[in-house]
Write a structure and sequence with these properties.
The structure holds two protein chains of two kinds. Chain A has a two-stranded antiparallel ribbon. The longest helix of chain A is centred in the N-terminal third of the chain and has 32 residues. The radius of gyration of chain A is 25 Å and the shape is globular. Chain A is built from 13 helices and two strands; from the N terminus they run H-H-E-E-H-H-H-H-H-H-H-H-H-H-H. By secondary structure, chain A is mostly helical. In chain B, strands 6-7-8-3-9-10 form a six-stranded mixed beta sheet, with helices on both faces. In chain B, strands 13-12-11-14-20 form a five-stranded antiparallel beta sheet. Chain B has a five-stranded antiparallel beta sheet with strand order 15-19-16-17-18, with no helix packed on it. Chain B is an alpha+beta fold. The chains are: A mainly alpha, B alpha+beta. The interface between A and B is medium-sized, with 20 and 23 residues.
Chain lengths: ~300, ~400
C-alpha cells in the first residue's frame, strides 16, 4: 500500500486510465469501429468461412469441407499461375514506373521559366482514369490502326508486357507528383554543400537526394506494389485475361470465380491474395525501413 | 618543406578557449587571396544583387562582409564558392581566375547558415564527405592532386574532430546533436579539406546569444591557428567588429567601405556606414554650415563645432549632416547643444539618454546612473575631433 502510494519516479510509468476515460475513448472510437466491423472485419470473417465450403452441383448446395479446400486450391496450378501473373505484372509496372517518375521529377525540379507547364504535363497521367488510359493503350496496340501496330496483345509472351505499359504510364505520373513534392523538402543548402564537397550530379542524386526522400520512395514502393497486385480494370479492358490466360492475374481469376458455383474457391483465392499482399508489404517495411531516413 | 615550420600562436592547454592538439598547428594550407574586380551579379528582370564590386581579400585575412539583408553580401560569397554565376567582372582565387571554375575545383569550403549537414549520415561521414570525391595536393603543393587514401581520410577526420571537440559525437547523426554541436560539425567539414579559403554565411545566427559569443572567440582562435583566408558574411556588426581583420560594408549591392574595425568605426565613409556600425548607432543631425563667428554647423538651435581643419572648405549655408557617436556627447552646463530628454534607459554599467536636438532623435551614452528625467533639458558638448561631417546630398564623408 505504502509503495503504491508513492508514484514511481524516473522509471517508465505505464499509462493507467480511469474507467471513465476508457469509456470515453470507446465512445469516441465507436463510429470507426462500427464502420470497420460492418465493412471489413465481418466480411473478412465471412470470406474465411466461405473458403471452407465446396460448391456441389454448380452451386445448388455447399458442403463444409474444412481447410481441405484451402490446401487444394492454394497449392493448385491455377492459383500459382495467377500469382505468377500478378508478380509479373508488379515486376513490369512498379520499378519502371518508379524509376521513370523519379527521373522526371528530378529533371522537372528546377527553377526554370515555364517549368510548371512540364510539371502539369508529367502529372497528367495521374489525372486520367484507368479506364481511359486502358482504352488509349488498347488502341495504341491495335494491329491495324494502332500507333504501335503490333500483335502483342495476341502473343502470350508479350501480352503481359503490353498490358503493363499502361500501368507504367500511370505509375509514372503518381511517382512524379509524390517524388516532386518530396524533392521540394530537400534543403537547397544541403545540395549546395554536396556540390562544394565535389559530388557530381549523379552522386548527389544517389548519395544525398534519394536518401533524403527515402520515406517517400518507400511509401511509393508499397503503394505501387499493392496497386499492382490489385490491378484489374486495365487487364479487363485491354486483354480480358487473354490470350490463353496469359494475363490472368489473381484478381482477374477471383473476379472470374465470383459466381455461385465457384464462390468457395473465389473466397480461398481472395484470402490467398490478402496474405500475399500482407507478407510482401511487411517484408518491404522490415527489409527497407532500416535504410530509410526519417527527418528528425 | 611546406609542413615544417615553427609553432606559432599556440593556445596553451587549460586556456579558456578550446585547447588544441599539435596537429592543427602543423598544418599550413596553401592560403590564397580572393579578388573581386568589377564583379557584378544581375538576376533576371534587371535586379542587380552585386554592382561592380572591387574588393581584394588578402591571403590569411579574416574578411567580414557586413550589411543588411539584401545588400548582396551573401551573393558575393556564393560567387566565390561558385554557387552563383558571375554576370560581369573577374573573380580570382590566388592567381587563378575562377569565373568558370567548377565549385568543387575552387578549393574553398563553406559553412552554411543552416549548417547543411547531411541528416542521413553520421557525424563522421559528414566530416569525411569532402575527402571522398575531391582531389587534394596531399604530397605537397607541387605534386599532382590525388584522392586521399582511407588512412589519410581517417587521420584528417580525427584531427578535425579533435580540433573541434567532436570525438565523442562521431557516431551520432545530426538530429541527435545540439545547435552548437551541429555548427561544430559544419566547421569540421569545412576544415577537414584544408581549403585555401573558408566561406561562412552567417554561421552563428542560429545559436543562442551565449553560445554565439563563445563561438566568436573560437572562430577567431581557429582562424589564427589555420591561417586560412576567411570570408565571413554577417548582418551583425558585433560579429564583424569582434572577429574581422577588415570589414567590407555593403549596401544595395554596392561596397560602401573597406577597412579595419577601428577604421570604419572612427572614420565611416558615408552616412550608411556611420549608422550601421555601433550600438546604439551614430547620431546624425542635419544642419547648415556657418562661418559667422566661430565656424560650425547650426543644428536645432545650437551650433556644433567643426572637425579640425575643415572650416575653410565649407561654404556658408551648405547643408550638411553632423554625426556624433553617443559616447562622445558629454553633459556640460555650458555646452553648445540642447537636448530635450525623452527617456533614460539604465543598463547597469551605463545608461542611454534618449532625446531630441531640434527635431532629430539623439542618444547619449553616460557611465553609471543618470540623474536626468524625461521632459527635462540638458546642455551637451562635443569635442571637435569627435564630430563627423557628411554631405547632406551625397551622404559622403566630408571629415
Amino acid at each position: 500500500m505504502t509503495v503504491a502510494a508513492t508514484p514511481a519516479r524516473g522509471g517508465r510509468r505505464r499509462a493507467r486510465y480511469s474507467p471513465r476515460e476508457v469509456a470515453l475513448a470507446l465512445a469516441l472510437l465507436a463510429p470507426s469501429i462500427a464502420v470497420f466491423v460492418a465493412f471489413f472485419y465481418r466480411p473478412f470473417l465471412n470470406l474465411l468461412n466461405w473458403g471452407t465450403f465446396e460448391s456441389r452441383r454448380n452451386g445448388a448446395y455447399f458442403e463444409d469441407v474444412g481447410l481441405s479446400q484451402y490446401r487444394e486450391q492454394l497449392t493448385g496450378d491455377d492459383f500459382r499461375e495467377g500469382l505468377w501473373n500478378s508478380v509479373q505484372f508488379v515486376l513490369y509496372t512498379v520499378p519502371a514506373g518508379l524509376v521513370l517518375g523519379v527521373l522526371l521529377a528530378v529533371s522537372a525540379h528546377r527553377k526554370l521559366r515555364g517549368i510548371k507547364v512540364f510539371q502539369a504535363i508529367f502529372s497528367s497521367t495521374l489525372a486520367s482514369s484507368v479506364a481511359v488510359t486502358s482504352v488509349i493503350f488498347f488502341y495504341l496496340f491495335n494491329p491495324v490502326v494502332g500507333l504501335i501496330a503490333t500483335d502483342w496483345l495476341n502473343d502470350p509472351d508479350m501480352a503481359m508486357f503490353a498490358v503493363s505499359l499502361s500501368s507504367v504510364w500511370q505509375n509514372m505520373g503518381l511517382s512524379f507528383v509524390i517524388v516532386l513534392a518530396g524533392l521540394q523538402t530537400v534543403p537547397d543548402e544541403v545540395i549546395e554543400a554536396a556540390t562544394l564537397d565535389g559530388y557530381g550530379p549523379t552522386r548527389r542524386l544517389l548519395r544525398i537526394t534519394l536518401p533524403l526522400i527515402s520515406p517517400v520512395l518507400l511509401f511509393l514502393l508499397v503503394v505501387l506494389v499493392i496497386f499492382g497486385l490489385q490491378a484489374f480494370a486495365q487487364i479487363d479492358i485491354i486483354t480480358k485475361g487473354g490470350p490463353v490466360g496469359a494475363t490472368e492475374t489473381l484478381v482477374f481469376k477471383i473476379n472470374r470465380l465470383n459466381r455461385p458455383d465457384n464462390i468457395g474457391i473465389g473466397a480461398v483465392y481472395s484470402v490467398g491474395l490478402f496474405f500475399v499482399t500482407l507478407v510482401v508489404t511487411t517484408l518491404q517495411f522490415v527489409i527497407l525501413e532500416r535504410r530509410v531516413h526519417y527527418a528528425r | 618543406m611546406p609542413y615544417t615550420e615553427e609553432p606559432r600562436h599556440r593556445v596553451g592547454r587549460g586556456s579558456s578557449v578550446r585547447t588544441v592538439g599539435d596537429g592543427a598547428d602543423r598544418r599550413r594550407s596553401y592560403v590564397a587571396s580572393v579578388t573581386f574586380e568589377g564583379v557584378t551579379k544581375e538576376y533576371e528582370g534587371d535586379v542587380v544583387a552585386v554592382d561592380a564590386l572591387d574588393l581584394s581579400i588578402d591571403d590569411g585575412e579574416f574578411m567580414v562582409l557586413l550589411g543588411p539583408s539584401g545588400c548582396g553580401k551573401t551573393t558575393a560569397l556564393r560567387m566565390i564558392a561558385g554557387l552563383e554565376d558571375i554576370t560581369a567582372g573577374k573573380l580570382s582565387i590566388g592567381d587563378r581566375v575562377v569565373n568558370d571554375v567548377d565549385p568543387a575545383k575552387r578549393d574553398v569550403s563553406m559553412v552554411f547558415q543552416s549548417y547543411a549537414l547531411y541528416p542521413h549520415m553520421t557525424v563522421q561521414r559528414n566530416i569525411e564527405s569532402p575527402l571522398l570525391v575531391r582531389r587534394y595536393p596531399a604530397d605537397g603543393p607541387d605534386a599532382p592532386a590525388r584522392k586521399l587514401t582511407g588512412a589519410e581520410r581517417a587521420e584528417r577526420v580525427a584531427e578535425a574532430a579533435r580540433v573541434l571537440g567532436l570525438e565523442e559525437l562521431l557516431k551520432r547523426k545530426p538530429a541527435a546533436l545540439s545547435g552548437g554541436q551541429r555548427q561544430r560539425v559544419a566547421l569540421a567539414r569545412a576544415f577537414v579539406g584544408r581549403p585555401q579559403a573558408f566561406l561562412m554565411d552567417e554561421p552563428l545566427s542560429n545559436l543562442d546569444a551565449k553560445l554565439r559569443a563563445a563561438t566568436r572567440l573560437e572562430l577567431v582562435d581557429l582562424h589564427r591557428r589555420v591561417e586560412t583566408t576567411v570570408v565571413y558574411v554577417t548582418h551583425d556588426q558585433v560579429e564583424a567588429m569582434t572577429m574581422a581583420d577588415r570589414i567590407a560594408i555593403m549596401s544595395a549591392g554596392r561596397l560602401q567601405q573597406v577597412g579595419t574595425p577601428q577604421d570604419v568605426y572612427a572614420a565611416p565613409a558615408n552616412l550608411f556606414v556611420a549608422q550601421f556600425i555601433g550600438t546604439p548607432p551614430m547620431n546624425t543631425i542635419p544642419g547648415t554650415a556657418t562661418t559667422e563667428g566661430a565656424p560650425g554647423v547650426d543644428v536645432g538651435g545650437g551650433r556644433a563645432p567643426l572637425p579640425p581643419g575643415l572650416a575653410s572648405r565649407l561654404d556658408e549655408g551648405r547643408p550638411v549632416v553632423v554625426g556624433v557617436r553617443p559616447e562622445h556627447l558629454v553633459i556640460a552646463p555650458d555646452g553648445p547643444l540642447e537636448l530635450v530628454v525623452r527617456a533614460v534607459e539604465w543598463l547597469g554599467h551605463e545608461c542611454l539618454v534618449f532625446g531630441t536636438i531640434g527635431s532629430s532623435p539623439v542618444v547619449v551614452r553616460q557611465a553609471g546612473m543618470s540623474p536626468l528625467d524625461a521632459g527635462g533639458r540638458v546642455r551637451l558638448a562635443v569635442q571637435p575631433v569627435d564630430v563627423h561631417l557628411f554631405d547632406a546630398d551625397t551622404t559622403e564623408r566630408l571629415a
